[in-house]
Amino acid sequence: MPSIAVIPGDGIGKEVTKEGLKILNYMNDQHNLNLKFEEFDIGADRYLKTGELVSDATLKKLETFDAIYLGAVGDPRVPAGVLEHGILLKLRFHFDQYVNLRPIKLLNDKFSPLKNKGVKDINFTVIRENTEGLYSGIGGFLKKGTKDEVAMQEMISTRKGVERIIRYAFEYAKKSQGKLTLCDKSNVLTYSHNLWLRVFEELKSEYSEVETNHYYVDAITMKMVRNPEIFDVIVTCNMFGDIITDLGAEIQGGMGLAASGNINPETVSMFEPVHGSAPDIAGKGLANPIAAILAAAMMLEYFGKEKLSKEIEEAIKEAIDKNLVTKDMGGLLTTSEMGDEIVKIIKRG
Ligand code: NAD
Ligand code: IPM
Ligand code: MN
Predict the structure, then answer these.
(1) CA–CA distance from 162 to each of 31, 129, 173, 194, 249 (Å)?
(2) pLDDT digits 0-9 by tens, 64-91
(3) Among 60, 105, 157, 162, who pairs with 192 as Cys (CB 3.0-4.6 Å)?
(4) For residue 77, how far is its CA from the centre of ligand 2 (angstroms)?
């Protein structure tokens, strides 16, 4: 049965995965899921001690697992980009996890930051391309450190990469009977995003049953705030997906609530919260573990345990309804009390 590699990582990543595992362990015992966990010491501490990020041997070992459950990486003691590229992006790229699935679902009207918009309005999914675009790492410096310095960072869009993510999004929209919106900047990125636009148009004729729509990325941020109800599924490139899902996290109630799945059904998929290591609140018991717990629920759904996944979401909803939440949501619970509360609610049934 499913084996899960756990990478708590840095900062609040360590605190929130602990709570996710609390819920997974409970489900495991209760329903004889036979889940097997193995923790991996990957992150800033290890890097600072040994200089190692993720070795080839570790990658080989991770290949033998069914999924990865990750907290977050990033540490103020390490220059920006080292851990992000060396660990997180390395894993996404190594396992070719080309889909970054990011649901944006408000669980209770009272946490909507948008006037007159509630749970019936804020409920959609962003499908973010996860292996190319501005994240390819292709680029370099010329005359670095001089007044003539040139810095380049390439935006890569391949036919294969663009087609597989847009096709995945069409399939997702078809299955969920939702409207599919393309978010791009094809009015300016007349090469890179022209390819996105052409592929989208092409696939539209293959999926004539799926209703479609199209917004430029600047306009979509306005629509996400003003009219979130018009969206069911949004497909977009890597960088825009990163940006609009932090906005999405806020309209669903905050960074502490947004979960994601890095998916390639043919390799090893990885589940994690959308938020980072939050050094400003790390080690204080202030982190909201709900995003990490929802990421664990997404992982169970991925393993075909939809009912258990739903049960976790319902328990979270109940805790939220009763204001049994962490400080970021106006509550009094610590990170670990929040996890305990969710287990308690699931137990009660
Ligand atoms: P962040 O998501 O860590 O934090 C942004 C803000 O949201 C902070 O004020 C933080 O306190 C708050 N916040 C985030 N998660 C929270 C939670 N669960 N409960 C309560 N409050 C929460 O983003 P950042 O500050 O831009 O980045 C910090 C570090 O994390 C950086 O090194 C960055 O590169 C890294 N990062 C990693 C990931 C990842 O591993 N997936 C994602 C984003 C950022
Ligand atoms: C995210 C993060 C990452 C990204 C960083 C840490 C590399 O912001 O998962 O949203 O940009 O994808
Ligand atoms: Mn991000």
Answers:
(1) 39, 8, 17, 11, 25
(2) 999 999 999 999 999 999 999 999 999 9
(3) 157
(4) 18
Residue 335 in contact with ligand 1 by CB distance below 6 A: no
Report the topology of domain 1-97+265-349: Isopropylmalate Dehydrogenase (3.40.718)
Site to substitute for ligand 2 among 10, 93, 136, 242, most atoms within 8 A of C-beta: 242
User: What SS3 class is residue 95?
Assistant: coil
Residue whose C-alpha is closest to residue 105's, from 259, 217, 311: 259
Q: Please indicate whether residue 250, judged by its CB atom, sits closer than 6 Å to ligand 1.
A: no
Q: What is the pLDDT of residues 25-36, one digit of tens each?
A: 999 999 999 999
**Same fold? 1-97+265-349, 102-263:** yes
- Is 74 a pocket residue for ligand 1 (Cβ < 6 Å)? yes
* CATH architecture, domain defined by 102-263: 3-Layer(aba) Sandwich (3.40)
* Domain-wise residue ranges, the chain: 1-97+265-349, 102-263
Strand partners, 269: 67
Q: In terms of DSSP H, where are the helices of 229-302?
A: 238-251, 290-302
Structure token pair of residue 274: 């959308």
User: Any residues with CB less than 8 A from the CB of 138 and at least 6 apart, and which?
Assistant: 153, 154, 156
The answer for residues whose C-beta is within 8 angstroms of residue 322's C-beta and 6 or more apart is: none
Residue nearest to atom 4 of ligand 2 (CA): 242
- Counting Cα atoms < 13 Å in the Cβ hemisphere of 288 gives 27
pTM as predicted: 0.98
